[in-house]
Design brief:
Number of strands: 0
CATH class of one domain: Mainly Alpha
Shape: globular
CATH superfamily of one domain: MFS general substrate transporter like domains
Mean pLDDT: 88
Largest sheet: none
Distance between the termini: 68 Å
CATH architecture of one domain: Up-down Bundle
CATH topology of one domain: Growth Hormone, Chain: A
Strand content: under 5%
Helix content: 55-70%
Number of helices: 18
Length: 546
Amino acid sequence: MTHTKTGFLDKERTIAGAGFNRWLVPPAALAIHLCIGMAYGFSVFWLPLSKALGITASIPCGPEVGFFQELFVTGCDWRISTLGWMYTLFFVFLGSSAAIWGGWLEHVGPRKAAVVSALCWCGGMLFSALGIYLHQFWMMLLGSGVIGGIGLGLGYISPVSTLIKWFPDRRGMATGMAIMGFGGGAMIGSPLAALLMKHFATSTDVGVMQTFVVMASIYFVFMMAGALSYRVPVTGWQPAGWTPPAAQVHNAMITQRHVHVKNVFKIKQFWLLWAVLCMNVSAGIGVIGMSSPMLQEVFGGQLIGVAKTFGELDKLELAVCASVAAGFTALLSLFNIGGRFFWASLSDLLGRKMTFIVFFVVGGLLYISVSGSAEAGSKLLFVAALCIILSMYGGGFSTIAAYLADLFGTQMVGAIHGRLLTAWATAGILGPVIVNYMREYQRSLGIPHDQAYNQTMLILAGMLMIGLVCNLLIRPVADKWFMTDAELAEEKRLAHEKVGGANNGQGAENDKPTSLVIICLAWTVVVIPLSWGIYKTLMNASKFFG
């Protein structure tokens, strides 16, 4: 059946014309990622929500109220551990939805997928706001956790394939820009949420419901602006003056052919990459989860110039230490975000395989060095090691998308990336469980606070060594897995692609050259909130140095 008309959200309406400037696509991707990245910062709501009824102090539920009853109870406050399930659901549904609907995204294009993402993420927040008003936790889990989690998955992968096709010469840098936004979302959202809650809080309301409504409204405007700004290049488009590199030894890992997403689970390179991402994320996410308590327990009174161990500190000293540790956590978040752009861009020069070798070798050595730095009492070396580790954790997220495009081609890289994100969901459980249980086990043996993480660091280094072996085993994909010309033509038809010349950039008719003013305006819209978020984070990080 042929289509004579196309809807506003259809992929055919997003094909760029000859004058379109590709530098308009990264700010569109950033507008979406900076909004959904607030998933990382939702913990800012836990404490106020745990006092939603009591306002000044929590009204605890009785011992007869279990988790299931807590979903519906209206007479007592939620526990922070219960609220944390929203965070868990975010990343379970992010990975699941990206895996399930990645193929659909390739066919309908990034605009429609991003619009659905905006409706799910912002609509989920509004439904959660209603849940707060009615004090029904099941509504919050369904709204933000499930519906919002689906929006996360679609929003996360929506720009990947498009950016890689617009920047065949700088795949790593392009994906690094967008995925940097996901890491930066909490830097903007967390302080914004704190300001809004302070504004809306009264003697009878903690102000979270109103904050959800306002943030959902702001995010919807930004995400829709990003979605409607997406454009896809015509098939065969290449940047002016650039030609694909010839097949040589140093770029043998970069294919010019394409693998269908339905076959990736049968290909060993996919599972090796799955293990590479899982090990890198597991090690890094474990550090993120324990960074604040670890710094306090390892250095104790040294953080505030007092000659006491962690166990000897009084309540006031512990509070000051916690403030310093919060600054350390903010510092780690800056390296996490900066690493997403830095390492992915560097991978364009080093190659994806070599970049991951650096992650695993250098990261493993740094994990091993952490224990020595702690024993020597060197805060500088300890903090420097963890900052570099977190930069490589973030860099793994952005580099892996370009790695997939190199190995499996660009035709269905968004869908394949979605399947690979199940490694992230797995790591989100594996990393924190290993770190938390190892710490508890070490403490049960009577090991002092400042030594309780020594074995954990060795285990995390070992996980990176597993990732290193998997990365070294990766070879170019066998010819039998690539689509034939007929299969590729059929996939392009399903994806509603328009064919253009290799270097002519011909797309939609009568498309005028993009104005430089529009490009500058688009970048300004995303740079201003990102700069504000970085400023607020730097102010928080200054507590560590102060």
